[in-house]
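Major facilitator superfamily protein structure dump, as promised
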Amino acid sequence: MTKTKRPQWQKNVWALWFGNFATGAGASMSMPFLPLFINEMGNFPKWQLTLYAGLAFSSVFLSQAIVSPLWGSLADRTGRKPMLLRASIGMTISATLTGLSTNVWMLIAIRLIQGTFSGYINNAYALVASEVPRDQSGRTMGALTTGNVGGQLIGPIIGGYLSGVFGYRLPFYMFGFMMLLASLSTWIFVKEDFKPIKKAAKTGIKDAFVGIKHKRVVVAMIVSSMLIMAATTSINPIISLFVKELMHNHGNIAFTSGIIAALPGIATLFSAPYLGRLGDHVGPEKILLAGLIFSAVVFFPMFFVTTVLMLGILRFLIGIANAALLPITQTVMTLEAPARSVSRIFSYNQSFQAIGAVVGPMLASGVAGVLDYRYVFLMTTILVVINLLVVVIAYKKDKVKITSTSA
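structure tokens r here:
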């Protein structure tokens, strides 16, 4: 009896899962401690420290938002694998250089450059989306998400330990090494059966949406991705500083911050595949709406936390909500976008995610600098409620359009 050969798309999923894991682990290994690293570069007052932390977090996403559509258009011509290699090799170099920064402005500048080379995870989604059978898209996207989330889970814990023992520079060097491994894995194991669009074909925004039946829903998913990123990244510039305040500046702050940063990843890691399968059965709309409602319910009580334990429990719960958000928006776009423009749709999505990752931390830095760290959670709750309204209105209008057309 001959053994059934595993299809190439499944092999690609495993290789890209590792690439997503390396990207998530490397990035999260240093990010929770970036404010503490900046604090070592000078004697900054609270408002200035939160401002610099916000700029350092946001700079990489600002440049990413600008260049992502360009990379997406190029991917539709050259394939997703070259874009994956471009991203992983670029981050290998830029992450290593970040660890060599001697002042805060050099740090911000290098991260700005890093953003022009990022985009590994979104290109991984785009490659898989173009190949996966439609009836397995939800569970496959959920499984692919566990790679990134698993990395985000283990990264802060390892980074917290390394930072506490060896200082804040080593995690950046580890990030570079992880991306080197991702580059090798992608180069050796990922094979893409790519058919480029004709050079004469249009590659504008309007052309990318040609063939999409539910355009309002796809646009809503892109806007939703932006608001999700704004909400989830808003705490990044202040998480270690807030933990430091809750611990009254005693104990191993870096390691504790790493644990707090990792807790959402634990919940997402276990719940994302289940919610992905559930979405295949009941529809992604219901999962997304439930996730947004649950997210608002969890974010709001964070305003009142007085201990690290309370913050940790709520952060764990927000991880369950996260599993029902970004993976589901990716699934909707996978189902709706035609193969000829899937890279551009995902690149627009990445640009909006990047915009959210700029707006969220900068708003949080302003709120924390003017008011207090805990007011960031009220701001985040408002963003989630706005997101919920956007999704509800888009689905409602699309259903009206479908009904009237069929009539």
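Confidence is low (pLDDT under 50) at residues 400-407.
lmk if u need the other ones
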